[in-house]
Design a protein that fits this description.
Blueprint (H helix, E strand, L loop, with lengths): L11 E3 L5 E10 L2 E9 L2 H16 L13 H11 L7 H19 L9 H13 L4 H20 L26 H11 L5 H10 L3 H5 L6 E2 L4 E4 L2 E5 L25 E5 L8 E4 L2 H21 L29 H15 L7 H13 L4 H8 L4 H7 L1 H20 L8 H6 L1
Antiparallel strand pairs: 1-2, 2-3, 4-5, 5-8, 6-7
Helix pairs in contact: 2-3, 2-5, 3-5, 6-7, 6-10, 7-9, 7-11, 12-13
Length: 425
């Protein structure tokens, strides 16, 4: 008795030239019957293509011409536009879009995801590192591909995620280089002579990430209680062409009628732990009070030129604490330029803006603030991240703890001699 065909499989028949052919019925589309025609040299090969085409259709992925499943590039772009759009922040999608365009699509894009092997991915990632890409960047590429393949496996497009079968690129952690207390004081002293000194007070005393500081709204600050709530962050995603990822419209990405990306926008903090409440030092409270008065003065001077914000999504506010003189959100690039100019004016060595965050954390730990409290102030998701990032400070704290234990059990004479004492000997 002949085996019955599955729904949608259609008839598999042999043509005059000896090849086998089948039609896959995909239902109705735009009032017409939607069929996909597949061919091969054997009946079994065509039957396999039919099953793969049906699985691909069930996963919601547009069918390829030969029904063999999507290529790596086709699946990555589909995954980014349809899966990640609902799961991650716009800034994260922007990073993943760049990784696909620059690294993944050129090297692996033409390979069918079902034909991708661990060895091929491993060789690709080795070449990334050999070409000079940092371990951290190579790891981002690895994770982007792995997450996309995980979804493909869940939808039956591949039987395994090959990225889980190889070691991910190693990341060499560089020890943080915070500013010294003296350098931080010089920066704040110089900042007091310029515009928005409170911006740098927040950076050096609270260690907010740049996006968190620039996205800080007055609604999130209670100056009477002396607290600050991190509820949103300012982010910028570049516009990209939406014309099938090509410049078919002949315009710049920002003018593309189908552009993707959101420009300057508000989003949730980096992690769930990033949504936090911080108690402010009293001098910072006074600095924010003075900043609010100065911002009100700038608004009066600007008059009708003061920026009118778009409607804010629910739970967000455009009443930002740190803005330009005409009320617009502060561009991250401009904020960084202001930081570099401030360092130069203060006569302080070059440091990244993120080093201000490291400075705040190092100073807190150096003042014997419990690591758990520092973790909550910084918005770290795990205490291990705090320990790993500031291991150099932890070693000093362990030495101090060891000396205190020695003094408690064996007396003050057990304390280690200082360098000066050794020199006297």
């Amino acid at each position: 008795m002949a085996k019955r065909r599955s729904n949608g499989e259609g008839a598999i028949y042999q043509t005059k030239d000896g090849r086998w052919r089948a039609a896959v019925d995909l239902g109705w589309k735009d009032g017409k019957r939607d069929r996909k025609y597949l061919s091969g040299t054997t009946k079994a090969a065509v039957a396999k293509k039919v099953r793969e085409a049906l699985a691909q259709a069930d996963a919601g992925v547009p069918l390829t011409r030969d029904g063999r499943g999507p290529t790596v590039e086709e699946w990555l772009w589909y995954w980014l536009a349809n899966v990640q759009a609902r799961r991650v922040r716009p800034s994260t999608r922007e990073t993943q879009r760049a990784l696909i365009r620059v690294h993944l699509a050129p090297a692996l894009g033409k390979i069918r995801i079902r034909d991708l092997t661990p060895e091929r991915v491993e060789a690709f990632e080795m070449k990334l590192v050999e070409s000079g890409l940092s371990g951290a960047s190579a790891l981002k590429v690895h994770r982007t591909l792995s997450r996309a393949l995980k979804v493909a496996m869940q939808r039956g497009l591949v039987s395994r995620n090959v990225c889980t079968l190889i070691d991910s690129p190693a990341v060499v952690r560089h020890e943080v280089e915070p500013l010294t207390t003296d350098e931080a004081k010089r920066i704040l002293k110089t900042a007091a002579q310029g515009r928005s000194p409170a911006r740098w007070c927040v950076a050096l005393s609270l260690g907010l990430r740049q996006g968190e500081a620039l996205g800080l709204a007055w609604d999130n600050i209670d100056l009477e209680a002396g607290t600050l709530s991190v509820r949103q962050a300012l982010a910028r995603s570049r516009y990209a062409h939406g014309c099938d990822r090509q410049t078919a419209c002949g315009k710049r990405p920002v003018a593309c009628p189908h552009r993707v990306g959101e420009g300057m926008h508000l989003e949730k903090p980096k992690s769930r732990a990033g949504d936090r409440v911080i108690t402010l030092p009293l001098p910072l409270v006074e600095a924010l009070r003075a900043h609010r008065v100065e911002q009100h003065r700038e608004r009066l001077l600007a008059g009708q030129a003061w920026w009118t914000p778009p409607p804010a999504p629910r739970g967000y506010s455009w009443d930002l604490v740190f803005r330009t003189a005409d009320g617009r959100p502060m561009q991250p690039a401009r904020d960084y330029r202001d930081w570099r100019a401030l360092l130069e004016s203060a006569g302080v060595r070059h440091a990244r803006l993120h080093d201000a965050r490291h400075t705040a954390a190092t100073m807190l730990l150096g003042m014997d603030v419990k690591p758990r409290v520092v973790m909550e102030i910084l918005g770290h998701s795990k205490i291990s991240l705090t320990y790993d990032t500031y291991s150099h400070v932890m070693q000093e704290l362990q030495r101090a703890a060891a000396d205190q234990m020695g003094a408690a059990l064996w007396g003050e004479e057990s304390l280690r001699p200082t360098a000066g004492d050794r020199d006297d000997e």
